[in-house]
Amino acid sequence: MIETYHNPPEQPARRTYTVQEAGCILGLGRGAAFRAAKSGQLPTIRIGRRILVPRAALEKLLESSQQREGAA
Q1: Is 11 helix (H, G, I), strand (E, B) or coil?
Q2: Which of 6, 5, 1, 13 minimizes the C-alpha distance to 54?
Q3: Distance CA 63, CA 55 (A)
Q4: Which stretches of the chain are assigned E, i.e. beta strand?
Q5: How far apart are CA 42 and CA 36, in angstroms?
Q6: What's the pTM value of the predicted model, to 2 decimals?
Q7: Does residue 8 or residue 63 have the better pLDDT?
Q8: Among residues 65, 58, 56, 48, which one has the least CA distance to residue 24?
Q9: What is residue 46's DSSP assignment?
Q10: Would you place residue 38 in the very low, low, confident or very high pLDDT band (cuts 50, 70, 90)?
């Protein structure tokens, strides 16, 4: 019998991360990431009970941080 493999369609790039995933990207632990989200240091949106970090906002945060470091 010949086996065939079905390639699933490519998923579009995710536009949001969970707070924990964003924290991991930033090198933060889970608790620190949620504290940053609660204080407003980490930009978030709320959908129902879920708290998400928009990818574009996270990238903008990282870019502005790099620009500040370059100016110093």
Answers
A1: coil
A2: 13
A3: 12
A4: 16-18, 45-47, 50-54
A5: 5
A6: 0.76
A7: 63
A8: 58
A9: E
A10: very high
Left, alpha or beta for 42 (phi > 0: left; psi -120 to 50: alpha)?
A: beta
- Burial environment of residue 42 by CB neighbours within 10 A (0 to 12, 13 to 18, 19 or more): buried
Q: How many helices (H) and strands (E) does the chain have?
A: 3, 3
Q: Does residue 40 come out as left (phi exceeding 0), alpha (psi in the -120 to 50 range) or beta?
A: left
Structure tokens at 16: 């949001």
Sign of CA dihedral 64, 65, 70, 72: positive
